[in-house]
Amino acid sequence: MSPVPSDSSSPLIAHPFRWFLALLILLFFYREWIVISSPITLFYDEAYYLSWAQTPDWGYYSKPPMVGWLIALTTAIFGNAEWAVKLASPLLYSGAAIIIYRTAEHLANSRAALISGAIFLLMPLIGFNSLFITTDAPLIFFWCLCFYAFIQAKETNSGYWWLLAGVAGGLGLLSKYTFIILPSTFLLYAVLSPIGRQLLLNPRFWFTCLLALSFLLPNLYWNYQHDFISFQHTAEISHQNSSSLSFSRLVEFWLGQLLVFGPVFLIYMIVRGLSRKPRSETEKLLWSLFWPTFVVLSVQAFMARANVNWAGPAYIGATLLTGYYLSQVKGYRLLLTGLLVNLLFSVSFYHYAAVTDALGIERKEGTDPYKRLLGWPQFVHQFQPWFDQYPDYKLASDSRKMLAYFGYYISPQDFKGVALSENAHIEDHYELQYPLSKSTAKKFLFVSEHDMEAKLHRYFSDVTLLTEQSYPLYSNFTRTARLYKVSDFKGIPGQQDHE
């Protein structure tokens, strides 16, 4: 692959890696400041994953184990503060950005590397996700690492690079099952390029794929022990059996990608790509990195549903491809315009309250992206006196959201809250690991967003409503929950027979 000639006379790229590191460090500490000072409290999925982290395992209800392991690591070192729970996310995205830089430098030149690194760091998806710990952070990091190792291995046939590609691939599979799409990059590349076909004839390529798959074996065994619950959940959220084909859903997904990657860069990449066939090996390889994930998730959106962030790994290829194309353009106007637009998206999200206050816009349910995060510490703390009064009562609920938030924000923290499920269908981690029917506890403080008194009398001999608390979040939305003291569990009709 011939590198594109670089304009070494430009002052901006006299020391490109220093500029890149300066941007990376600045954004890392800016985003950490946002998390700590705002503060960006835990989203309930994060509190939920924190409960996974208390018992590191080879699998969990809905995901492979990596996100739980990462949270277990950062909280073991720094404690359970919100920023510590989230810390692996900005660290992994920063690491992924460094790999993006080195990949672009290897495939093209330092100018392409600086541009690609900046595009990745300021991508709206990365700006948003850096504030939250999700499975996307390790998925994207190991995707970048595995791809970089593959291109090195393809050129050198070094055992070291093949081994690294296999290990990174295995860790990627333990991060999110979507990682299984990555090898299709090289299958598509084989269609487009003779060099790609040579890669498939190399036995080390297939050994590396097998090595990566071997990492998934403990997770598969865990799933076997739990009736393949992770795959059942994945099928359920896809709604493959119940959804109809929808062009409007597909178009909505595509339009959402403008916010994921940034409208300027996505439109530029598509227009540039459609204007000519891929000519260089670099173009063929990077389009192969983009298309499989984008197509698979587009089909998913058309057939059932797909969240806009699910196509995130496709934008590793898009980042490298856009950086490669822009490195051939004289000047920086288009690049700076795209970066500025993306930065404005992130800043508007980070400082949403300040922006709406400055514009005189009232934040309400339906208009505030932080709605699902706000007020939970204050809301839960309203219930603290009753938890202090009954310290020997176990936390229980009919909702994973309530178990996750109360488990984190109540004192002392309880990450193993007991779940009430009225049927044999398991819907979350708490129902899988801590079902009421198998709990050794006898007395519970049961919290619910619903009026549960009549229903709880079916399952407990003693039911007392202790309090109902509300927390007004907006003029049109108030959080409300009830806390019951229950004991003498009578069992759930039908479940004993099922078990």
From TrEMBL:
<dbReference type="Pfam" id="PF13231">
    <property type="entry name" value="PMT_2"/>
</dbReference>
<feature type="transmembrane region" description="Helical">
    <location>
        <begin position="253"/>
        <end position="274"/>
    </location>
</feature>
<feature type="transmembrane region" description="Helical">
    <location>
        <begin position="334"/>
        <end position="353"/>
    </location>
</feature>
<keyword id="KW-1133">Transmembrane helix</keyword>
<keyword id="KW-1003">Cell membrane</keyword>
<feature type="transmembrane region" description="Helical">
    <location>
        <begin position="137"/>
        <end position="153"/>
    </location>
</feature>
<dbReference type="GO" id="GO:0005886">
    <property type="term" value="C:plasma membrane"/>
</dbReference>
<feature type="transmembrane region" description="Helical">
    <location>
        <begin position="66"/>
        <end position="85"/>
    </location>
</feature>
<dbReference type="GO" id="GO:0016763">
    <property type="term" value="F:pentosyltransferase activity"/>
</dbReference>
<feature type="transmembrane region" description="Helical">
    <location>
        <begin position="159"/>
        <end position="192"/>
    </location>
</feature>
<keyword id="KW-0808">Transferase</keyword>
<keyword id="KW-0812">Transmembrane</keyword>
<keyword id="KW-0472">Membrane</keyword>
<dbReference type="GO" id="GO:0009103">
    <property type="term" value="P:lipopolysaccharide biosynthetic process"/>
</dbReference>
<protein>
    <submittedName>
        <fullName>Phospholipid carrier-dependent glycosyltransferase</fullName>
    </submittedName>
</protein>
<feature type="transmembrane region" description="Helical">
    <location>
        <begin position="112"/>
        <end position="132"/>
    </location>
</feature>
<dbReference type="InterPro" id="IPR038731">
    <property type="entry name" value="RgtA/B/C-like"/>
</dbReference>
<dbReference type="InterPro" id="IPR050297">
    <property type="entry name" value="LipidA_mod_glycosyltrf_83"/>
</dbReference>
<keyword id="KW-0328">Glycosyltransferase</keyword>
<feature type="transmembrane region" description="Helical">
    <location>
        <begin position="204"/>
        <end position="222"/>
    </location>
</feature>
<feature type="domain" description="Glycosyltransferase RgtA/B/C/D-like">
    <location>
        <begin position="62"/>
        <end position="222"/>
    </location>
</feature>
<feature type="transmembrane region" description="Helical">
    <location>
        <begin position="310"/>
        <end position="327"/>
    </location>
</feature>
<feature type="transmembrane region" description="Helical">
    <location>
        <begin position="286"/>
        <end position="304"/>
    </location>
</feature>
